[in-house]
Write a structure and sequence with these properties.
The chain has 13 helices and 9 strands. By secondary structure, it is an alpha/beta fold. The protein folds into 3 domains: 73 residues, Arc Repressor Mutant, subunit A (Orthogonal Bundle), CATH 1.10.10; 133 residues, 3-Layer(aba) Sandwich (Rossmann fold); 61 residues. The strands form 3 sheets. The chain has a 5-stranded parallel beta sheet with strand order 4-5-8-3-9, covered by helices on one side. The chain has a two-stranded antiparallel ribbon with strand order 1-2. Strand 1 and strand 2 form a beta hairpin. Helix 1 crosses helix 4 and helix 10 crosses helix 12. The longest helix is centred in the C-terminal third of the chain and has 14 residues.
Length: 303
């Protein structure tokens, strides 16, 4: 099926279900459902429609059993799956140095009987993304990761309906669009997500825990901030930064310990952004550590 075909089939089903089809003994035409004849002809060839009547001036259709089955299968896919208890491993956040209070709060949020949402706020290059990575790894398919500036083409409504997550991880929350923010406000407040749109109605009620990260909080609306337990992330000390870089490179980038030590030492005093260390490590096999640092950082315009 092409993108949008299921929505069109749902619109056809909505038309048939809301009309007395016995009065349309020649079936409905494209004018009834307002779908182009070429698209209906393709649906007919694919077996989703039955041809009830055909003449030089009129072609009448009805949904076939196959068409109804496709719609029913999609509806079943949107049914809430059986939730399983989230049991974070003992070493959750073990690769993150410091921030003990944040670790304790996030673990409690994941274990709470009812959702408690957490927002990590602080400058770039800290551990905010690392916390989201660790939660995603611990929760597996029960978690969805998304970036606020590019949620999805369909939007947050359809993403939650399709995936039915227990945990929603959002990076760059402050960049989320208005439509997705409205959906987020609804799901965080009472676990309910409602959308009224012909053929694409949604009415989902499930508890979802939201853990988000943002470089700033002042640009967010008061009603959004009030739904979060806000955690301020402080900058790393020099020693903590070196330890974090070595841990991330070894455990996440599979860099040999000696190379990770070299990269951390040579970045000392140049940057405190862990992502810089990752970029250096990925380019080092082609350029060498010193050349990668020079090309990436020493000529960078920070103004």
């Amino acid at each position: 099926m092409k993108e949008g075909d299921l929505e069109l089939l749902n619109e056809i089903a909505a038309f048939e279900d809301s009309n007395d089809m016995s009065k349309l003994n020649m079936g409905w035409s494209w004018r009834h459902v307002r779908i182009w004849p070429a698209t209906l002809n393709r649906f007919f060839k694919d077996g989703y429609l039955e041809n009830v009547f055909r003449s030089n001036s009129y072609t009448g259709y009805r949904l076939s059993e196959k068409g109804r089955a496709v719609i029913a299968s999609a509806d079943r896919a949107h049914e809430a799956p059986q939730d399983t208890e989230i049991t974070p491993p003992d070493n959750l956040f073990g690769d993150i140095i410091g921030h003990d209070d944040v670790k304790e709060l996030l673990r409690a949020c994941l274990l709470a009987d009812d959702p408690v949402h957490a927002l990590l706020v602080g400058p770039p290059a800290l551990a905010k993304t690392l916390f989201l990575w660790d939660i995603e790894k611990a929760c597996g398919e029960r978690a969805i990761w998304l970036v606020g500036s590019a949620t999805s083409k369909a939007g947050l409504w359809d993403l939650i309906a399709d995936k039915q997550p227990q945990v929603l991880l959002i990076d760059e929350l402050d960049k989320m669009g208005a439509a997705d923010t409205a959906a987020l406000l609804s799901i965080m407040e009472g676990g309910r997500l409602v959308r009224a749109k012909v053929g694409r109605e949604l009415d989902i009620n499930r508890p979802i825990r939201v853990v988000a990260a943002s470089n700033r909080a002042y640009s967010m609306s008061p009603e959004l901030l009030s739904r979060f337990a806000v955690c301020r992330i402080d900058s790393y000390s020099r020693n903590d930064y070196l330890t974090v870089v070595k841990g991330v490179l070894v455990h996440r980038e599979n860099v040999p310990a000696e190379t990770a030590e070299e990269i951390a030492g040579k970045l000392d005093g140049i940057t405190k952004d862990v992502r810089d260390a990752i970029r250096v490590a990925r380019l080092a096999p082609q350029l060498g550590v010193d050349r990668a640092i020079k090309l990436l950082l020493e000529t960078r315009d920070d103004n």
